[in-house]
Design goal:
Elements: E1 5-8, E2 14-17, H1 27-34, H2 42-45, H3 50-56, H4 59-67, E3 73-80, E4 86-91, E5 101-102, E6 117-121, E7 124-128, E8 141-145, E9 150-154, E10 161-162, E11 165-169, E12 172-176, E13 179-180, E14 188-193, E15 198-203, E16 211-217, E17 220-225, E18 236-240, E19 245-248, H5 251-256, E20 261-264, E21 267-272, E22 278-283, E23 288-294, E24 305-309, E25 312-316, E26 322-326, E27 332-333, E28 336-337, E29 340-342, E30 350-358
Length: about 350
């Protein structure tokens, strides 16, 4: 680590002076100790000294926690409030009193945009594109650094997009489909490489503007397209990164994908919201969707989004109402899945998308 403080010498010049992270310990041992502090206390660590603040915000600290399986996943939700303004919330699922907290407001320029997408890459939460009645689909990208608690502008998209879907795969971001700007290429997607801090554009006739949901499953990106198509297999496509090609999803799988999806232990789950809320599971061997169970209408407030942490699926609906299903103990009582819930907000926000960010 680079020393951050200086000391005076007789010549009047300064030379670097090393100040230990923890007095009496080598810095590598101090890193081992500090990296084991639970994530909820990281803001307090940053208050101890400038060196601790720099360490907690560093890629080195994040990388160490990831490599040694010390990361903790928090849920970040992109929402829209009653005034149609963008806002973001965060939930620590391990807190003794679990509740959603309002995140620092995104940059003012994007607050009134519709059709923004979001995704997580590393320790950053990205907001992409969007549009408004007075502007075309935007190419702007903003990212929130969770360790620094700051927003900044990132490299712009190759193509302005609105109502696209976004996924992270193999340390890259993929912004796919949606309505593109007047100067953009239809039937296209953009890929972000964090090492070069740049986006590249690609096109394929299978990409449509009306994309509904997306999920990474079996190392591929699956996209659910418009629900009103008369051809079942055309309602979903998948991206194979090894060949960089798009393919239609087979009709058996596409026909049952009727809502937001999430993957737990390499098994795909979908929340069917067409009549109440029902959790479905894809059985790969039988090529069939089977019901896991229905959720109580008293707890869920559709439309909902899904995220998974370990064996637990979080079902997040209007007002950030949150229902948690533990798949290890999933059972039906009185026709409904047993679940726990997290208190809703006093304000009725609409949930656009939810993502996990691990530090």
């Amino acid at each position: 680590m680079e020393p951050l403080e200086n000391e005076q010498v007789d010549s009047g010049q300064t030379k670097p002076a090393h100040t230990s992270l923890i007095s009496g310990l080598p810095d590598d041992i101090a890193l081992i100790c500090l990296s084991r502090v639970p994530r909820r206390y990281h803001p307090l660590l940053k208050c101890v000294s400038k060196r601790w603040r720099v360490l907690v915000c560093s890629e080195e600290f994040h990388s160490y926690r990831r490599v040694h399986s010390l990361e903790e996943s928090w849920i970040y939700a992109l929402c829209k409030d009653k005034s149609e303004q963008i806002c973001c919330y965060v939930l620590d699922p391990t807190a003794s009193r679990r509740c959603w907290k309002l995140l620092q407001s995104p940059p003012p320029k994007c607050l009134k945009r519709k059709g923004m997408a979001c995704e997580v890459l590393g320790k950053r939460f990205y907001l992409l594109g969007g549009c408004s009645w007075s502007e075309d689909a935007a190419d702007e990208v903003y990212c929130y650094d969770a360790s620094k608690n700051t927003w900044e502008e990132a490299a712009p998209l190759s193509t302005g997009r609105c109502y696209c879907v976004c996924e992270a795969l193999h340390e890259k971001l993929y912004a796919i489909g949606g309505v593109v700007s007047n100067s953009g290429t239809p039937h296209s997607w953009d890929t972000y490489d964090q090492h070069t801090n740049s986006w590249s554009s690609h096109s394929d006739s299978k990409i449509v503007h009306d994309v509904q949901d997306s999920v990474v499953f079996e190392g591929k990106i699956y996209i659910r397209c418009c629900s009103f198509t008369t051809v079942p297999h055309a309602s979903a496509i998948l991206y194979e990164p090894s060949s960089e090609t798009w393919q239609h999803v087979d009709a058996d799988m596409a026909s049952g994908w009727k809502g937001p999806a999430v993957v737990v232990d390499e098994t795909l789950f979908v929340l069917d919201q067409s009549s109440g809320t029902r959790l479905m599971m894809w059985q790969h061997e039988n090529r069939d969707w089977v019901p896991v169970g229905r959720l109580s209408p008293l707890l869920t407030r559709p439309p909902c989004r899904l995220v998974a942490i370990g064996k637990s699926i979080f079902i997040i609906g209007k007002g950030l109402s949150t229902v948690v299903i533990d798949l290890d103990n999933a059972r039906n009582v009185g026709g409904a899945l047993v679940s726990t819930s997290i208190p809703t907000l006093t304000s009725d926000v609409d949930v656009i998308s939810c993502k996990l960010l691990s530090i």
